Amino acid sequence: MKGQEWYQTDEVAEAYDAKRFSNGGRLIDRTEKGAVLDALSPVEGRRILEIACGTGRFSVALAERGADVVGLDISGPMLRQGHDKAVSAGVRDDADFLRGDAGRLPFPDDHFDAVLAMRFFHLVDDPAGFLAEIERVSRHQVVFDTFDRPSLRTLYTWALPMGSRLYGRSEVRELLADADLDLAGVDHEFLFPYGFYRQIPARLADWTWTVDESLRGAPGVDRLATVSFWDCRVGD
Asked: Which pTM was predicted?
């Protein structure tokens, strides 16, 4: 998987949230959390696995709403951030953080009600294999996002520290079919890419988001959205 070494450093883990979710990045955080909670709700009492949980922002948000969450990541420093976040939020008993490889999940079949994988598929070398493994441990639902083409993200993805795999929508649908996952819903968001929003102040980002939403409402324009949120059901 791309970025394994990069995410292992204490410096990256400690600066991760501040770098991505301050200023205009706050809007990204709100939008992503909203998409996750809309897809997974109601979460109370559900057993949920978050793959590539990073600093635990989704795991903690789900635990705060009554879910029993396991956050799995390959980076020890990122997991420590998630653990500290859970302690601060008072949900340490409802959010466990484990170090592990998403390609070989240490859980039996059908172990979770739902599996979440955000900011993950753009890094994987074998999306079909990872999706099959994710489907294996879920008995009901799989939620994930992709960075998409064609989109403005194409203009700068080559400059990112570990690159970024971009997906066409037909490609994702083929992956879902191969993994025996049924598409329940999909939202296509952000004409302007994340990197742009992170560079501008929060108030300007909110105004830009209004323009973004308006443009995406025009016929055919949402095909240029940079991010898609996929909500899937495990087949019989």
From this structure: 0.91
Query: Which alpha helices (DSSP H) does 143-222 contain, by range?
Result: 169-178, 194-198, 202-216
Query: 114: number of CA atoms within 13 Å, CB side?
Result: 26
d(CA 175, CA 171): 6
Residue (of 223, 194, 187) closest to 208 by Cα position: 194
CATH class of 6-234: alpha beta
Nearest to 228 by CA among 172, 169, 188, 183: 188
Instruction: Tell me if 232 sits within 8 A of 143, measured CB to CB.
Output: yes
- Using alpha carbons, list the distances in angstroms from residue 54 to 12, 63, 109, 139: 11, 15, 24, 24
Q: Where are the domains of the chain?
A: 6-234
Question: Can you give the pLDDT of all 236 residues of the chain as single tens digits?
Answer: 544 554 556 566 566 677 788 889 999 999 999 999 999 999 999 999 999 999 999 999 999 999 999 999 988 889 999 999 999 999 999 999 999 988 889 999 999 999 999 999 988 889 999 999 999 999 999 999 999 988 777 766 655 555 678 999 999 999 999 999 999 999 999 999 998 899 999 999 999 999 999 999 999 898 999 999 999 999 86
Q: What is the 3-state secondary structure (H, E, C) of 65-94?
A: CCCEEEEEECCHHHHHHHHHHHHHHCCHHH
